[in-house]
Design a protein that fits this description.
The chain is an alpha+beta fold and about 120 residues long. The chain is built from three helices and three strands, in the order αααβββ. A hairpin with a 3-residue loop joins strand 2 (about 80-85) and strand 3 (about 90-95). The chain starts with a helix and ends in a 24-residue tail after the last strand.
């Protein structure tokens, strides 16, 4: 059956959705899958903010971070975190340049909202 003028125009003008994974190499797909497994495990364990902080601290400590100590002089490259009452977390790595030369402060804010019904 021949296509109508409208169907031909639709094919010409409308976007044709393509799954992004079709453009990735097998290596990139495997890397994404490996990441997603760990991400899903984290999200399963961290359903509320207190659990998220607890899980994040475990990951930070596994990667060489230590609790922040007020008044301590940190050396370049030292890693630290501050647990704010079990509800939020700040972590960082001490830089090599003097603070007077500037700082880099990447910020991420996550808010968990769970359905109440």
């Amino acid at each position: 059956m021949d296509k109508t003028k409208g169907e031909l125009l639709q094919e010409e003008l409308m976007m044709k959705p393509v799954n992004g994974t079709s453009r990735l190499s097998d290596e990139a797909l495997d890397k994404a899958e490996d990441f997603s497994v760990g991400y899903k495990k984290f999200m399963d364990a961290a359903k509320i903010e207190i659990e998220a902080v607890k899980e994040a601290i475990a990951l930070l400590e596994k990667n060489g971070y230590h609790p922040f100590e007020r008044g301590k002089k940190y050396q370049p490259g030292e890693r630290f975190y501050y647990n704010n009452r079990g509800k939020s977390l700040i972590f960082g790595t001490m830089g090599k340049r003097p603070i007077e030369k500037g700082v880099k402060i990447p910020v991420s804010y996550t808010h968990l909202t769970l359905p109440t019904t």
